[in-house]
Write a structure and sequence with these properties.
Rossmann fold; 39% helix; globular
């Protein structure tokens, strides 16, 4: 069970600001529920954040033909060489169904696969968002997902 003083680290890649916007929303929900949350941009994040902590939200958009956001690539390479046994994460992917819909959120899928192959535990169902996240429908979707996912951390 997560103790309220154990932080949740949100690590994300955002280029256009959409992913960052969603991560801010999730952080707000978790903080309002009494959790300590730290936000980290992936391109500025040292692998030791992942090695030295226990609970994470990992998020990215999908680029080109189904690849991870390039801001996450360096960290992803380091993740492949790490062991995340005893650590838990949940995932968010942003994408655009208008462009090659079969690649929708595959950047996040790749990130989750690397996490699991490195012995990390995945919690719950990943949230996928297929449009810009600036309306009330997405706001409610993110809020509901964040509240539900926080309970999974608490039960873990």
């Amino acid at each position: 069970m997560i103790e309220s003083n154990i932080p949740i680290h949100i690590i994300y890649a955002s280029t256009s600001g959409n992913t960052e916007f969603v991560m801010d929303k999730v952080a707000d929900v978790w903080r309002k529920n009494g959790r300590k949350v730290f936000l980290h941009r992936s391109e500025k994040t040292d692998i030791n954040i992942l090695k030295d902590n226990k609970y994470f939200l990992l998020a990215t958009s999908t680029w080109d033909h189904g690849t991870i956001n390039p801001f996450f690539e360096r960290l992803l390479v380091e993740m492949r060489k790490s062991n995340f046994s005893g650590k838990s994460a949940t995932f968010i992917g942003l994408g655009d169904r208008r462009y090659e819909s079969h690649y929708f959120c595959t950047g996040m899928t790749l990130l989750k696969e690397v996490w699991e192959k490195s012995n990390g535990k995945s919690l719950g169902v990943a949230l996928t968002i297929g449009r810009e996240p600036f309306d009330e429908i997405i706001d409610k979707l993110v809020r509901d997902w964040a509240e539900k996912t926080l309970k999974l951390f608490e039960e873990n």
